[in-house]
Amino acid sequence: MALQQRDPGETQDCVPRLWRVSFECGQRLFEINQPFGVLAIVRLGFLKSFTVNDGAGEQVLGFPMRGSILGIDGIDSGRHQSCTQALSSGELILIPYAALLNLGQTHPDLRTCIFNAISAELENNLLMIRLLALRFAEARIARFLILLASSHAALGYSDSEFILRMRRCDISSLLGITLETVCRTLTKLRALGIIEIQHHNLRIVDRHALSLVERLPSSPARLKKIEANRVRRRLLRHVMAQASIV
Hints:
Blueprint: E1 4-6, E2 19-23, E3 28-30, E4 38-44, E5 47-52, E6 58-62, E7 69-70, E8 83-86, E9 90-96, H1 97-106, H2 108-132, H3 137-154, E10 161-163, H4 168-175, H5 179-191, E11 195-198, E12 201-204, H6 207-212, H7 220-245
Antiparallel strand pairs: 1-2, 2-9, 3-8, 4-7, 4-9, 5-6, 5-8, 10-12, 11-12
Helix pairs in contact: 1-2, 4-5
């Protein structure tokens, strides 16, 4: 992990040695199968966690931001199970896991903080599972924007205006939908006046309407394509029926 170390040094005796490390946009911070030794708390910045599927493509798992804890996927096996890449510059606080465990035996309050932080990450994962269970792709995108807005609000930022630092293809990978669907849905939400979006800058105009989105109306071109597919399937069934009679 090629991170630039900053301000090393001893903390108070009751706290294990911590390291503040900086990273740059695009930098890979953790790799799959990298030996596990530290937990990392995001102090500043925005990141992407992902794994690699059999086709060597990325499967995005989430977008950690300030306050997120990284590395818990390596606690059981002793090796990281996912990759982490920076989508902006920022800083991490690295905490040696072994020292943290030893300290937790004598400082129950610190142990509680550790468990709470890990529990919060698991709760975030549960929210994503519930989001992926939504039937329609448009609903997934709408709920994703709502969750992202809520995450910004929890950090004291605006819950209506923020930067989408991830690429559209990263959103499609996370939500299990096509890139075309992501782009089309964002365009439709903008046309309906629910959001304003320009490049990576997004503003939620009508949060209530966004929270109610299930499925958006199709464009005329999309409706024509759907109807053409229906006609094609009907003709195919007719041909197969005739063939079975013969």
